Amino acid sequence: MSAIVLLILGLGGMAAGYWVYSRFIATKIYRLDPDFKTPAHEYEDGVDFVPTNRFVLWGHHFTSVAGAAPIVGPAIAVIWGWLPAFLWVVLGTVFFAGIHDSGAIWASVRNKAKSVGALTGDVVGGRARSLFMIVIFLVLLMVNAVFAVVIAGLMMNFSSAVVPVWGAILVALIIGQLIYRRVLSLPVVSILGVIALYALIFIGPSVPIQMPAEVGGLSGNAVWILILFAYAAIASMLPVWVLLQPRDYINGLQLFIGLIVLYGAILFLNPTVVAPMINGDLPAGTPSMLPLLFVTIACGAISGFHGLVSSGTTSKQLNREPDARFVGYFGAVGEGMLALAAILAATAGFASFADWQAVYTAFGAGGVNAFVEGGAFMIHNGLGLPEATAATLLTVMAALFAGTTMDTGLRLQRYIFQEWGEIYQQKWMTRNVPATLLAVGSCLLLAFGAGGAGGTGGMIIWPLFGTTNQLLAGLTLLVVTVMLVRLRRPMWYTLAPLCFLLVMTIAALLIQLRTFFNEGNYFLLFLDFVVLIAAILVAMECASALKRSRAEVARQG
pTM of the prediction? Predict the structure, then answer.
């Protein structure tokens, strides 16, 4: 199978989804109104509520939701074969992720930019809100703790990426000032920013920075984790226009250029997909494809974390309600394109099937390294770029996305503590600094409390991320579906994905429950049981809320 065929089919399907299906959803289902006054204008404060150009906001939204997950998940899932991963990424992007992300933005904008957790209390009920807040906290805890490990590992393994990764922050700060003080037009700033970013990428291999193996009794990896959380804490409290928006915007442009380079290499090289279409010779211990495919590939098909970003930060910056289609749905398409690139790099970026098998020796193999090494192989052989430079480009791409997700994730975690402060009337928790310290402290407690001096504690609970994250997506679709019922609009476009996710998530949780029990991993067994109970209760809340809403609509005639 030629990788070009998969590339054309995948991009063609996503393009059709955006131009046709998303227009139908935006105009007929969500009915996005250009005259509706968005919370960004109603509550504008120059810090969190800031009306934003839709292209800049798309950059923030897309890079915040992307992270490393749309690379890691697909690059692991191809162990079952390239066809299941390919179909779930393309169909999931078009019929699941797009309506989920744009729907979460629309629901939040129509309710004073409340986060989806707080909104659940108004739309569904107090019990559902309590469940939602617990699930949200767990997802954010996992994302922040694990992405810190991922970025630290990339900088330890690829010292040439350190200068570009941290230099991008300085570039973003300058871009933020140029855009919002209107010193230069957006196109000019965009060109200058991209040039600066890629100059750093080419400089990186010449100025490698290697963290010592041990610093003050801590491993080099642990030191990077501490530095990353210190940075994320500061970034999460700055006004969004200072760092968050410009960094995410320029990273979004960098990703598209990176994708063009990678896709261009595929067109020139015309590599063969060496991985099997359906893998009938799975390594020992590989779990069943159904239902675990649908929780292994979350970001890139549909992800509950997207709903947190959509309702937590994006809705507070939406200039016009119709922008939700471009920012939300096209943001999901951008992530689908990244997931497609990961599939191609992890299946066609090897010289032979034997080389592919040598990497995929067990479930969980592949991941970011397969993406970087496979992508660098294709770029080097297709475009002639030095393999070290190509590897640096792809490493920086992965690290910058993980970093922007951390920035947004910690800001969202701060919002959670502030919302808890409001719910339980703890005024001190509603302030930025205490809430941020609580967010950072909880992540560090997991990282170092459970992981020891290495700071890798987040990896301990990471096996539950997929199921917990998809449960969160189901909860978000529940909120959107109930709103549609109350507005007397068709609900099947969100209800069908909601039911599918709940069935797959509960089935995956049951499989994992048995696995953890057989392994004697009682900590994960306990957490899995908690999430399973939450999933069952959520399913019951779904049925109850929808029944109440339909009965209410019927009474009103």
Answer: 0.87
